[in-house]
Amino acid sequence: MEGKTSLTVADAVDYKGFPADRSKTGGWVPAALILGIEICERLSTMGIAVNLVTYLGGTMHLPSSSSANVVTDFLGTSFLLCLLGGFLADAFLGRFKTIVIFAAIQTVGTGTLALSTKLPNLRPPPCHANEECKEANGIQMGILYLALYLIALGTGGLKSSVSGFGTDQFDEKNEEEKTQMAYFFNSLGTLTAVTVLVYIQDEVGRSLAYGICTISMFVAILVILSGTKRYRYKKSAGSPIVSIFQVLVAAVKKRDMTLPYDIGMYYESAPEGSRIHHTNQFRCLDKAAIVADNDFVKNGPGSATPNPWKLCTVTRVEEVKMMARLLPVWATTILFWTAYAQMITFSVEQASTMERSIGGFTIPAGSLTVFFVLAILLTCAVYDCVIIPFWKKWKGTPGFTDLQRMALGLILSTLGMAVAAVVEMKRLSVAKSVGGTPPGKSLPISVFMLIPQFFLVGAGEAFIYTGQLDFFITRSPKSMKTMSTGLFLTTLSLGFFMSSFLVSVVKKVTGSHGGEGWLADDIDHGRLDCFYGLLAILGVVNLVVYLVVAAWNKKDDKETEMVDVV
């Protein structure tokens, strides 16, 4: 019996619902089939996002600030919908069905986008000399928005489940290998998107590029379906969002009750091995674990179970407290992604006005983000091969802590915005000296001056992304790992939305009294350097707040360790 048990994988079933056979399910091949779809997701989302601002301005004739906001709202919605995808996967569909359904939605979205860029009636007429450009009308923008938000919906559902389903194909002992594989596929898709796909968009045609995205995603769906019999499936444990609301509702209902002096009086029914020790933070939530009249529902003679909306275990309450302790760090990392948003909006617009020729080859403006991706890969390589071994010898720990990596990310992004402001001052001085960017030509200033800002923010992402992922996964309860990942992804979403909000406010405030303000319709007539400077100042303020929050978290860690010892 013991030998038979070892042939199966704990907590996993095959496609028929039987215990998963270790020799016939899971492993690298099924994981590759699953994560292959992540290449296509990255190809579509990043290939569209990094070059969308040039299409909105150059073809749809939207103002500079409006183009930037369309891009950031699209990306913000994509990451926000990860919460919806995660909820559906956890509560109803499971990860496999969620991936297939949302991949199909994204395929429809990219197909619609390919169609909208192909048909002349779905875009305004091109500009002619001495004529005012006609902005895209409501129907044309409506079709474009439909395509983008179908893609956003598909991205949200895919991103919430594809990496998790890939890691389900391995035992927990292979955590490091799973992470490395997912990162490799993610980076490969992004690199292809910002180089090959952007070049096709600019030099051959956007409809062809988006058609490639559509076909590749359709093929990826067929590929993932082909491995149905070889996957390991984890049963849905229900959505942790419901558990959180149960604690909150129970605590509110008992808000007038007095907390007991003896913590042993709180309700607890969780198995001994999975219990979480009581802590003194957020004590208002402890009221959800106070036993009161009518908290139990009778199931029959001598049998009763607690109503989860009236009475929760100490362990359930502590799980909610653990999630609450993540929120201060969550809030102070949002601004990084606001700085990141500028790399695929205004920085691309800057690149489109600058000299991008190398010999007879002209670099597409959107492909400048390749330096951003290379900075991420180079930083990760240096960190893994140099910093970690050095830190282990010097401090005895394997590299920087999650809080330290996030701090480095915030510092680098702030420096990136400061450098971007200086470079933009130089670009504006050149534009002023020649009377603006000539139609169809570029300013006599090299686009490679933008590399430092791409590199700094890219290096920052390498630190903050891994730091956030470690922080939210390791400091959340086991039953809420999926939700904590979704919480991490909302920092990206809110960062993009924050960018849209700041652009709108700055546009309104600085563009009053008849002037074009900092964010003019043509960036040569604005003061983008001031906007970058504003983000750098906000970055400094945010960093100070983060350091206070990080110190509080370190203190909280020590107090929690003392409670566990006791």
TrEMBL record:
> Which keywords, in A-to-Z order, does the entry hold?
Membrane, Transmembrane, Transmembrane helix
Q: List locations, semicolon-separated.
A: Membrane
Its GO biological process annotations read: oligopeptide transport
Q: Where are the transmembrane segments?
A: 74-93, 100-119, 139-160, 181-201, 207-225, 326-348, 368-391, 403-423, 443-465, 486-506, 531-552
GO cellular component annotations of the record: membrane
Which PROSITE patterns does the entry mention? PTR2_1
**Membrane topology classification:** Multi-pass membrane protein
Signal peptide from the UniProt entry: none
One Pfam family matching this protein: PTR2
Q: Does the keyword Transferase apply?
A: no
Lineage, top-rank taxon, reads: Eukaryota
Q: What GO molecular functions are on record for this protein?
A: transmembrane transporter activity
Record-linked PANTHER family: OLIGOPEPTIDE TRANSPORTER-RELATED (PTHR11654)
Name the family the entry cites.
Belongs to the major facilitator superfamily. Proton-dependent oligopeptide transporter (POT/PTR) (TC 2.A.17) family.
Protein's recorded name: Protein NRT1/ PTR FAMILY 6.2
Q: Which organism is it from?
A: Ambrosia artemisiifolia
**Lineage, top ranks:** Eukaryota, Viridiplantae, Streptophyta, Embryophyta, Tracheophyta
